Amino acid sequence: MDDAEVIRRIGDLVDEEHRLERSVGTTGPDDESAGRLRDIEVALDQCWDLLRQRRARREMGDDPNDAQVRPSQIVEGYQQ
Fold first, then answer.
1. In the chain, what are the domain boundaries?
2. C-beta pairs of 25-29 under 8 Å, 24+ apart in sequence
3. What is the dihedral of CA 51, 54, 60, 61, to 10 degrees?
4. Residue 3: what are its φ and ψ, rounded to 5°?
5. Which of these, 57, 76, 59, 77, lies nearest to 67 by C-alpha position?
6. Residue 25 — φ and ψ, nearest 5°?
7. What's the confidence (pLDDT) of residue 25?
8. Which phi and psi (to 5°) does residue 77 adopt?
9. Which residues, 6 or more positions from 24, have their beta carbon under 8 angstroms from its beta carbon?
10. What's the rounded Cα separation, in Å, for the pair 44 and 14?
């Protein structure tokens, strides 16, 4: 997956997240929607991490295609 594909995936996930948030309105999400929102959040974190890896590899003169999606346990464990 190249940078443009990662960015497109991020855009698709953000669009889905916004649609879900609008659909639940003021009542809040049901269990299914809440689970999907959490899945989207994790997928977004993984995509952003992958994009940062690719950019860092390119900046260091390494092949950005060697970057890999890290497991959710890793990207969700980062401190902000």
1. 3-75
2. none
3. -150
4. -55, -45
5. 57
6. 55, -140
7. 78
8. -90, -5
9. 30, 33
10. 8
The tens digit of pLDDT for each residue in 43-72 reads: 999 999 999 999 999 999 999 999 999 999
pLDDT at 24: 85
For residues 30 and 6, give the distance between their C-alpha atoms in angstroms, rounded to a whole number.
29
Residues 6/15, Cβ–Cβ less than 8 Å? no
Instruction: Name the pTM for this structure.
Output: 0.89
- At 77 the pLDDT is 86
User: How far is it, in rounded angstroms, from Cα 40 to Cα 13?
Assistant: 6
Lookup: tokens for 50? 């992958």
For the chain, report the end-to-end CA distance as a whole number of angstroms. Answer: 26
